[in-house]
Amino acid sequence: KFLGPNFTESYCWPPVARGCDVLAISYQGNDPFLYIPPVLTFLQLGSCYKALPNRNGPLALILCPGWKKAQLVFELLKTYTRCSRQLQPMLIILGQNKEAARSVKIQRCEVIVTTPYSLLRLFEHHSFFFCRLCHLILDEVDVLFSDATEQVFTILDCYKKAVATEEWNYSPHQIVAVGTHWNKHIAHLIKEFMDDPYVVITAMEEASIYGNVQQVVLPCMNSERTAVLLKILDFTHDNLQKVLVFTNSVNEAEMVDKALKSNSIFSLKIHKESKFNFKYILEQWTKKYSSGSHVVLVLTDDCMQSLGITDATCVIHFSFPSLRIFGQRLHSMSDNFCDVIQDYSVRQKCPKARSVVLLTENSTCHALGILDYLQHAKAEIPPELHDFAAKMLEAEEEKKFSRPLCAYLKTFGICKNRRVCPDRHQINLQIDVPQNILDTIIQTPGCVTILPLHIVNATNYFGRIVDKLKDQYTILAEEINEYFKKPSNKISVKNVEKLAFYGLCEKTLFHRVQVIEIPPKEEENMFFNVKIKYIDEGRTSQVQNYQLLHLPAKFQCLPPQAVEFVVCRVKPIDNEIEWNPKVTHYIEHKIKGKLHEAKIVHTLGSTAWVDPMVGIELLSDLKVSVNEYNVRSAILSTGLGTDNPDHVTQLQKL
């Protein structure tokens, strides 16, 4: 079902399949398909590896920025190695338990997928790991360098030492790195560890960072833009200057051109309503000019592609662009990009391309994206742009005010991706004040008994607070099940309503549920799926509409009993933002449906943060309960969790 390589893959696959070192930066730089087909192709050539020592060890190593990406790459490898020789790919994710690393067996495995942290834990006990390694692949290289700089360079050093020996003269050695953003560590990777690499950059704004384009931001009032532009064009350069002034409308282009001519600046002009055709403009632009001359072309963005200019020395953004348009504008200077692979003395002689952004009070709509880019490009950023961005962020957060509180914020105290996260990161008193939940969640300062019933991940569960003396829900559940035992009481609902409460039979038990979503147009059908929430357990599910039963009002009086519990002060290792499924499965098996004692340290809405949460065992003969395990300690014991001391402090700051 594969239609063929896309634009970036078309440039990457040939050099990778020939065994060359390759760096690729692209908008699709997080797609493993940039390297999987050509690497598998090269690995078919068994004769290339005959000179390698006859030991256990992989031929190819794929380093991924986290367990989730490693899992994805491993699944793709399993799919595509079916039609190749047996490579026995292996996924290795290791925690801090040394015994687990010691017990890993690498036999007949030719491709390993792992993370930098896991690899170094493995390397402690498998010192010959690099003895046969020919292909080192860095997946999402920009993320690897930002999250695990030291670890990645340690691995690169080990690989460099391994292939430096004489026996490697007759064997392939290749580094492939793919990502979405350029950074300074990638420059070091190219110079120190790669051999005459192919550098493929299809994201133009990233190419401009590679090409050392100077980024200048000039704050001004919208009414002052023309005066600022004239000041920029007051040339004193000895070299030929070819300047593009980008505007966002025909009227703006006309106005700028008129202002330049009235100040005796020779300028060309092109837009979709212009009387000059593209051929004439290009003839004027490409004419041979003497040194010290300057050519200015005023244009709109829709003319860029038709003109195909790549030799501009300066781009002036008279109108503030989106980031993608910004990159396309910068491409107009690509002939003057420097090459980071060149020696410093050669780069110094390279004429520096320049990009000038006019920042006005009307520039807010794209300020966040441009600010991110300029910070990434190490440009000097005026305070005005920071102020714009802060206002934009504030406005974005206001739009999310009715959304749920961010799950990462709740679980770990911080959200690393606030810009793209769709959920709320501030308190909304209307939502977050405890509503319709047990009084004990507010009134009990000490320990409560909790029953986890739905496990979201290792530290996040839904369940109930149980009253040891007289539990209201236990009484209600018995009454509901007794009521529905009579066939005459099982009345299917004819008109399903959103947010209404119903009964539902699951195996032999009856539950209270609430309809939270009815797909559009489904109501016209006789049978359709609805999304429901088990209001006393917290889990959600899809059921058929005819399965919902009429629930008498007397069974709706008790508020929903489901409470969200979050275990405090523990987080995944290795800067991960999600729990490894191994930990979640282990904790689910340990705690689901079992009574626990917990101290509530914080509440918001129907969420309770607990520290500690302890599993208890009831000794019926002695009429006492004993503490069996601490949930936080159980998570830490897996080696895949670590201390998170700032968790509660961050919540209190909110």
Layout of helices and strands:
Layout: H1 7-17, E1 22-25, H2 36-43, E2 60-63, H3 67-80, E3 90-92, H4 98-102, E4 111-114, H5 116-123, E5 135-139, H6 141-147, H7 149-163, E6 174-179, H8 184-193, E7 198-201, H9 204-210, E8 214-219, H10 225-232, E9 241-247, H11 250-262, E10 267-270, H12 278-286, E11 294-300, H13 304-307, E12 314-317, H14 323-330, H15 344-349, E13 354-359, H16 367-376, H17 383-399, H18 407-412, H19 429-432, H20 440-443, E14 447-457, E15 460-466, H21 472-484, E16 501-506, E17 509-517, E18 529-534, E19 540-544, E20 563-567, E21 570-572, H22 581-591, E22 596-604, E23 607-619, E24 624-630, H23 631-637, E25 641-643, H24 647-653
Parallel strand pairs: 1-6, 1-7, 2-4, 2-5, 3-4, 5-6, 8-13, 9-11, 9-12, 10-11, 12-13, 20-23
Antiparallel strand pairs: 14-15, 14-22, 15-20, 16-17, 17-18, 18-19, 21-25, 22-23, 23-24
Helix pairs in contact: 1-2, 9-14
What features would you highlight for this structure?
single chain, 654 residues, alpha/beta, Rossmann fold, OB fold (Dihydrolipoamide Acetyltransferase, E2P), 4 domains, seven-stranded parallel sheet, six-stranded parallel sheet, 24 helices, 25 strands
Give an overview in words.
The chain is an alpha/beta fold. It is 32% helix and 23% strand. It has four domains: 7-202, Rossmann fold, CATH 3.40.50.300; 209-395, P-loop containing nucleotide triphosphate hydrolases (Rossmann fold, 3-Layer(aba) Sandwich); 437-468 and 563-652, OB fold (Dihydrolipoamide Acetyltransferase, E2P) (Beta Barrel), CATH 2.40.50; 473-557, SH3 type barrels (Roll), CATH 2.30.30.140. The protein contains 24 helices and 25 strands. A hairpin with a 5-residue loop joins strand 18 (529-534) and strand 19 (540-544). Helix 1 runs parallel beside helix 2 and helix 9 crosses helix 14 (323-330).
